[in-house]
Amino acid sequence: xxxxxLRRSPWEALESFKDRLDGVAQRCEGMLLLLxxxxxxxxxxxWFCPDDxxxxxxxxxxxxxxxxxxxxxxxxxxxxxxxxxxxxSDQSKIRHLAMSVTKMVLDLTKGVTFVITGVFMLLVxxxxxxxxxxxxxxxxxxxxxxxxxLTERACQERLxxxxxxxxxxxxxxxxxLWVPVLCRMASSLATLLLVVAVSFWGGQDTRGxxxxxxxxxSYFNVYLGLKSMDRHLKVLLQERARLGRFRFATRQELKGxxxxxxxxxxxxxxxxxxPCRHMFHGDCLRRSIKDRTTCxxxxxxxxx
Length: 304
Description:
Blueprint: H1 10-27, H2 29-48, H3 55-78, H4 93-126, H5 138-151, H6 153-156, H7 159-165, H8 175-201, H9 204-244, E1 247-248, H10 251-257, E2 272-273, E3 279-280, H11 282-288
Antiparallel strand pairs: 1-2, 2-3
């Protein structure tokens, strides 16, 4: 009887370790995001200002503070009710009062943090106190700022309305699905170009120490970034395939109809046509057939 060998080859062991590392990275998205930003900013330090290694840390701190201030200000201005009361139920007044006090304490803490953070920014960046090692160039600020916007979750939440403001009919109101794909594609491509530049044209004094940094950035920023983009891309393609079963309405059909979408009651400049010859916005039709397979207008089966 032959003895079965349970020993794995080095390649299989490396593949298993990589799969485990990928799983840990997917579960720790917050830590992975911070690591991606730190690695990218360190690459920018290597390329733009190799003598000032603290520039990336100062810049990342500045962007996070600015993002927090903008996010808090946006939440404050978007509130419709500034009263500290929380309406939960009419039976338990004690619980209602306790939750109201908790909300007041949280809002007060956020307000104090907002003021302290604003004063800190004025002292450090406005009055130039303690910035002897912080003198970035404009290309450095533009590149790192763009990368921060593309990767920070709070900034990504503001991008779909901005993309929708462009009124690109070809997107068919799928901006929330397009933004993660475009952001991860752009950030991964920017990191890849910077890795190549630092590896081969970073200078003799920094090339040796930059190889480890480039390898880490290639794995965490480029490889895992493209892998995350692939997951979001599959969702986007799935939704587009759902709409792809219905043809676009021609200009003659839209002109002859001269009507609004039956779902959202908005005028249609681009529409999808069902087999029963009803026209809808692509996003309206996609949302309608997500839970049912009938036409929103006549309830005829669409065979979706």
